[in-house]
Design goal:
Shape: globular
Helix content: 40-55%
Bound molecules: zinc ion
CATH superfamily of one domain: Zn-dependent exopeptidases
Low-confidence stretches: 13-53, 272-285
Radius of gyration: 25 Å
Length: 285
């Protein structure tokens, strides 16, 4: 009898074995880990379930590509390599990179595909755009950055920098585009995007002077194949601006202001809630 019981146990195990095998294989990830992002439909359901706070909820991919260029970096410290007010351990390039990383995070949360020109090192994906000479001097040339940006075929490009002036009382944010329509009554889409960013920053920082928009012939706004802006976030020569520029909370707020301004241009909410990330209006395309 014992033997019979064992056989029937073995038989039932053999019967359910295929079921176990099937469920194991179907629980494996369906595709390869580097499969291109789909419309994100699966993730929307996951996100809406798992997200605790609407404020940090990741929105579905919106199909727009943004390039973020942290000015300077590597051996190039940027404005005021010396004589700035950022303190002994920080330079312009550090600030640019820190805010750029926050900006990437914010834009990705809003559903954008984001490329950075660099994240503090010459990584394999950007290597081919860095000339031998730049590689040796560890200086990533503006024209090389432009080539890299253009290779990504973005919808918009943002370079982040800090300003410097010999009068420490001069402070504030300046946005630069390469566009003469800034002086006319019919601003181009390029200028309108910069205006949207400036308006958003004004909402985030109501107590400082309104950001100004100007036109300048700079490679990173002149030679790119898309619309774009170069933002001088503040003056490293101003003690007040410098204190903000090195403050991670300020950096995060600034990044959110820029991201919301871009998003308000591409996907207008039709309300004045530029600063609120909890708008239920999702992009429709
Ligand atoms: Zn700079």
């Amino acid at each position: 009898m014992k033997r019979k019981a064992f056989i029937s146990l073995l038989l039932s195990f053999l019967l359910i074995l295929p079921l176990i095998m099937t469920s194991c294989s179907s629980s494996k990830p369906g595709g390869s880990s580097f499969s291109p992002p789909s419309n994100g439909a699966g993730r929307i359901a996951e996100d809406s379930k798992s997200s605790e706070s609407e404020d940090t909820e990741k929105r579905p991919e919106n199909g727009k590509v943004i390039c973020v260029d942290p000015g300077h970096g590597f051996r190039d410290a940027g404005a005021g390599a010396e004589g700035h007010e950022l303190g002994p351990d920080t330079n312009e390039a550090d600030v640019n990179l820190a805010v750029s990383k926050f900006l990437k995070e914010e834009l990705e949360r809003l559903g954008y595909k984001v490329y950075m020109t660099h994240e503090g090192e010459i990584s394999p994906d950007i290597e081919q755009y860095v000339s031998d000479e730049s590689y040796q001097t560890f200086y990533f040339d503006p024209e090389e950055r432009v080539a890299l940006i253009n290779s990504r075929n973005p919808d918009y490009s943002i370079s982040l920098h800090c300003n410097m002036f010999n009068d420490p009382s001069v402070r504030g944010t300046k946005l630069y585009v390469f566009d003469q329509s800034i002086y006319t009554d019919t601003p181009s889409e390029n200028v309108k995007t910069a205006m949207s960013i400036a308006e958003s920053l004004k909402l985030v920082f109501p107590d400082v002077n309104e950001p100004t928009i100007d036109t300048q012939s700079l490679a990173l706004v002149r030679d790119i194949i898309c619309n774009g802006v170069l933002i001088e976030m503040g003056f490293v020569s101003s003690p007040e601006d410098a204190a903000d520029l090195i403050d991670p909370e300020w950096q995060k707020k600034f990044a959110r202001g820029v991201a919301n301004g871009i998003n308000e241009y591409f996907f207008p909410s039709g309300s004045d809630a530029v600063d609120s990330a909890d708008s239920s209006d999702e992009p429709q395309n």
